[in-house]
Design a protein that fits this description.
The protein has 323 residues and is of the alpha/beta class. Helix content is 57%, strand content 9%. It folds into three domains: 2-131, Rossmann fold (3-Layer(aba) Sandwich), CATH 3.40.50.300; 139-200, Helicase, Ruva Protein, domain 3, CATH 1.10.8; 205-322, Zinc Finger, Delta Prime, domain 3 (Up-down Bundle), CATH 1.20.272.10.
């Protein structure tokens, strides 16, 4: 049977595929399961004509984002005759062969799925399912997801605890699932409490505290926090978080002149309460300072990654902070 999964919520797509994989005979998993990345046309046809052996069902996952993104004129890279052959081949796939065409859009990717393409229309005939990322401002849906996922792990948690988990960890489903696994080990058979969440679950408080000092111009305190962070994290890891924080701060600062808190939350996919806190922090911070700071950090990152830094990476970042 043919399936078509696509969208930007890669965790749910991976989970769906895992459900198929778990049904395969574990004794023959190496022969009955395979993945392919945007295969060329002859290879794609050969894959679809695969004949499962005596060990039963076979599952093939074809990662096909490249077929579905890019310029419309390029389509999938297949000409009309190839598209006709593909259509005929799909109609005659062996009944013991399950094929999942999978188009995951990576986080922060510029790629988009073009639903006008012939290949999208063709694949959409075969059990299509779109997996969309839940925006962070849709707190009720995210909290319901947390409770549902916790139930699959036999975790007991209240609405209040689900809300605490969301506020502390954020809306990334893969990260949420990982933290729920940690809570399962810690809580055992007891209900999860807010105290457990605060004690066990990962937060970026140290990094974000450092970013707050930096953005507000408290350079001495920022440097002090930076030195502490270096014992736990590589400078490039710190820079990655700083870029995210600064990008959000710049967007919030720009939008705040014409939009209210809830509108900004939807525009940048952030929890409204977090937007409210950021607006308070940015009240006396100029947009020009934020842009200059991001520019300095971008230059430092470029030098480090391209071997152009004269100083050690940690000193290169520190210099960018002090400029």
């Amino acid at each position: 049977m043919i399936y078509f999964f696509y969208g930007d919520e890669e965790f749910n797509i991976s989970n769906e595929i895992k459900g198929f994989r778990d049904k395969l005979d574990k004794n023959f998993i190496e022969m009955s399961y395979r993945t392919c990345n945007n295969p060329k046309f002859p290879d794609l046809i050969a894959i679809l004509k695969s004949q499962p052996m005596m060990f039963g069902k076979m599952l093939v996952v074809i990662n096909c984002l490249n077929y579905l993104s890019g310029k419309k004129s390029e389509d999938s890279g297949f000409d009309d005759n190839q598209m006709k052959e593909l259509e005929q081949t799909l109609e005659n796939v062996n009944e013991n062969l399950d094929v999942i065409f999978c188009a995951k859009i990576p986080p922060d990717s510029q790629k988009k799925i073009d639903k006008r393409k012939k290949i999208f229309k063709l694949l959409s005939k075969y059990n299509p399912k779109e997996f969309l990322q839940l925006p962070s401002y849709k707190t009720e849906e995210l909290e319901n997801w947390i409770k549902k996922q916790a139930k699959t792990k036999d975790l007991k948690l209240s609405d209040e605890v689900a809300s605490t988990i969301l506020m502390q960890i954020g809306s990334n489903l893969r990260t949420l699932d990982s933290e729920l696994e940690k809570l399962k080990v810690y809580a055992k058979d007891t209900p999860v409490t807010k105290e457990m969440v605060k004690e066990i679950c990962t937060t970026g408080e140290d990094l974000f505290g450092f970013a707050d000092f930096l953005i507000s111009g408290k350079i001495g305190q920022a440097i002090e926090e930076y030195q502490k962070l270096l014992s736990k994290k590589h400078p490039l890891e710190i820079l990655s978080v700083l870029h995210t924080v600064l990008r959000n701060s710049i967007q919030i600062k720009i939008y705040s002149s014409k939009h209210n808190q809830d509108q900004i939350a939807k525009m940048i996919n952030m929890h409204p309460y977090r937007v409210k806190l950021e607006l308070q922090k940015l009240k006396n911070v100029s947009l020009s300072r934020l842009i200059a700071l991001k520019k300095n950090l971008t230059q430092a990152e470029f030098k480090i990654k391209n071997g152009l830094a004269i100083l050690e990476p940690e000193k290169e970042v520190e210099y960018a902070i002090l400029r």
